[in-house]
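About this split. The held-out portion is used to measure sequence recovery: a designer receives only the structure tokens and must propose an amino acid at every position. Recovery is the fraction of positions where the proposal matches the reference. Here is one held-out target exactly as it appears in the evaluation file.
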């Protein structure tokens, strides 16, 4: 008798796991059969400019909020002060490095001083190679003709990261030492990290208006969870034996935290800083939709006018900034770990004399950039951005002329083979039929609690008046997830079975995961134009790295004895993969599907900028058209509801698959 067939406590025999796929197939078959007879009924179609009574009510409530902004005490003595503080914080950093200020035609620190400071930080906290990368990376912002925009992005990122760390690290320490608070905050962090970045923007503009304040708050909300979670993990990872020794020597709880836990968790906390910075940069670029300054605004304007060259140029600057910030903070983490292992607690420099020399040279360059125009304003004759734009535009035209047959064939294959059938089934089915199918899926894949969550989510989607758009978004999300899993399984199995392939591909995947979502839209837009397929392909490229890595790790986690036994029994490579490795990596595959689906949803709604339509377009239209604000806010809530429903079903299914896999062993 196998573990999955053994009777659990209480004498009730648990049904085996294998019929689940047949149950799912039966539900789909019944769905299609019923759809044939009832298609087009109760689908709640809504035109692009049409509003439901709920949307009108939200518009009216928004107007009330706008009109009471300077009268209501909540705004006068709380929200307005926060908005003013955040605006002034960002403006102050901009005055230092990007915008004319204090009666000067140029910022306080010019381009040469900023490059010098960034290089010095990289050298003191990293190494010479990272310092050279930083100097070249920062200089490239000016060479691309985007120095001011890059510094605006850096200013907003810096302000948001400082606030995120001031909030996140203390809360992370609290979660690390207090089990009750950790249990309380974990579901909230899960929710904040699961939701697409889009959904933070719309409601914040109601309170903080469009501009840097809303962008900063949205960025902090998105960037603070990694700081809390990773700091708490570092505090909890300190070995109990060390804490017991500290206590036995008479240390108080505060002394133990300050002198033992925090120093030992320093390396992990630096990793949290790295993740916070990357999350902040990602959000800052997307916050251009609510008029946040910087490179994101350049990308948005270029995407709206289908100017691929300008979008690529700005996207390249975002990529460079992401790489530089990631490498500097990663190198800082390695240095902290090396110092800890060597038993040293000295400053970040290798030698104090070298650190002093670096700081002295940096000070001189900062002074020159403050005093002299040549060191303050990046030379316009060194602007190579126009050549980049011209080259990309030429490459785009060439690709569209010479690759149209291939891109068109792929677009038609995805449209007619996957997207159109999915979309017709979802949008043509009555809402109650789709709801019943989703509840059935939750019952088969998850548990009773998730069934209730799914039923509530379906009811909310109906109540929000955006059922059709939600189904279109869901269809695109499911199609993109199918493509992600195909790519994830193929590349993941290849990586899991070959060390050489893993060493070559994994760094590319790691780099891909550091890129903000906007960046993925640009090259795909050049190949496929502004269509819904563009958003789907960009979503596949964005979500594939996490699915590939999880699949590869699952394949590598298969017991070598099982592989050896199958090989000894005469299994071919194909049989070994399909009959042994993939079935035994089922939990990893389910987790890959779960994470891939959430990444896909985040990217699909961003695709509303390039023709994806549906909920993403509703949110964007709500920013730009006042009469559609209520619909945009409702669309943001609908995205949240979809995300919660999909995340709960897939995550519970992943946990269930993991439990069954371990039980089978």
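Reference sequence for scoring:
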């Amino acid at each position: 008798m196998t573990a999955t067939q053994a009777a659990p406590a209480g004498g009730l025999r648990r049904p085996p796991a294998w019929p689940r796929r047949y149950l799912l197939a039966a539900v789909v078959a019944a769905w299609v059969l019923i759809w044939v007879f009832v298609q087009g009924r109760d689908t709640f179609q809504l035109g692009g400019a049409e509003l439901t009574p709920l949307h009108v009510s939200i518009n009216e409530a928004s107007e009330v909020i706008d009109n009471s902004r300077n009268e209501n005490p909540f705004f006068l003595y709380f929200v307005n002060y926060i908005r003013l503080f955040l605006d002034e914080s960002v403006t102050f950093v901009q005055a230092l490095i990007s915008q004319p200020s204090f009666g000067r035609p140029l910022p306080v620190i010019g381009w040469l001083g900023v490059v010098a400071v960034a290089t010095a930080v990289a050298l003191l906290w990293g190494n010479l190679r990272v310092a050279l990368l930083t100097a070249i990376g920062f200089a490239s912002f000016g060479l691309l003709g985007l120095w001011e925009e890059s510094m605006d992005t850096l200013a907003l990122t810096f302000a948001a990261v400082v606030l995120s760390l001031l909030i996140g690290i203390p809360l992370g320490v609290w979660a690390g030492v207090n089990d009750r608070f950790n249990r309380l905050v974990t579901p909230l962090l899960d929710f904040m990290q699961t939701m697409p970045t889009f959904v933070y923007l719309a409601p914040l503009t109601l309170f903080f208006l469009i501009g840097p304040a809303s962008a900063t708050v949205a960025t902090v909300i998105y960037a603070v969870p990694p700081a809390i979670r990773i700091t708490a993990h570092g505090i909890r990872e300190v070995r109990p034996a060390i804490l017991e020794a500290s206590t036995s020597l008479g240390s108080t709880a505060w002394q133990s935290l300050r002198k033992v836990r925090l120093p030992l968790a320093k390396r992990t906390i630096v990793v949290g800083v790295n993740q916070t910075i990357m999350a902040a940069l990602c959000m800052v670029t997307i916050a251009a939709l609510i008029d946040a300054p910087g490179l994101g605004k350049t990308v948005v304007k270029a995407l709206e006018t289908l100017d691929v060259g300008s979008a690529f140029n700005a996207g390249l600057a975002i990529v460079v900034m992401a790489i530089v910030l990631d490498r500097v903070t990663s190198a800082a983490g390695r240095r902290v770990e090396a110092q800890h292992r060597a038993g040293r607690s000295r400053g970040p420099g290798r030698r104090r004399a070298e650190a002093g020399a670096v700081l002295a040279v940096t000070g001189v360059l900062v002074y020159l950039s403050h005093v002299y125009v040549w060191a303050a304003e990046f030379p316009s004759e060194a602007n190579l951005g126009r050549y980049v734009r011209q080259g990309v535009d030429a490459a785009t035209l060439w690709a569209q002329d010479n690759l149209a047959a291939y891109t068109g064939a792929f677009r038609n294959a995805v449209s007619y083979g996957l997207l159109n059938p999915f979309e017709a089934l979802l949008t043509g089915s009555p809402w109650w039929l789709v709801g019943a199918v989703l509840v059935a899926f939750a019952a088969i894949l998850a548990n009773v609690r998730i069934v209730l969550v799914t039923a509530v989510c379906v009811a909310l989607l109906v109540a929000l008046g955006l059922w059709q758009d939600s189904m279109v978004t869901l269809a695109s999300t499911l199609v993109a997830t199918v493509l992600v899993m195909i790519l994830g399984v193929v590349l993941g199995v290849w990586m899991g079975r070959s060390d050489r392939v893993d060493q070559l591909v994994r760094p590319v995947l790691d780099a891909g995961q550091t890129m903000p979502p906007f960046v993925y839209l640009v090259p795909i837009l050049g190949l496929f134009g502004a269509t819904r397929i563009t958003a789907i392909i960009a979503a596949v490229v964005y979500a594939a790295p996490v699915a590939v890595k999880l699949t590869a790790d699952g394949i590598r986690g298969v017991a070598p004895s099982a592989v050896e036994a199958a090989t000894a029994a005469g299994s071919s490579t194909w049989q070994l993969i399909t009959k042994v490795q993939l079935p035994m990596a089922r939990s990893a595959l389910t987790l890959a599907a779960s994470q891939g689906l959430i990444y896909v949803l985040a990217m699909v709604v961003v695709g509303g900028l390039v023709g994806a339509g549906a909920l993403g377009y509703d949110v964007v239209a709500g920013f730009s058209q006042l009469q559609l604000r209520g619909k945009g806010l409702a669309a943001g809530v609908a995205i949240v509801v979809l995300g919660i429903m999909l995340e709960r079903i897939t995550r519970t299914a992943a946990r269930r698959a993991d439990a069954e896999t371990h039980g089978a062993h």
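Annotator remark: DSSP finds 29 helices and no strands in the chain.
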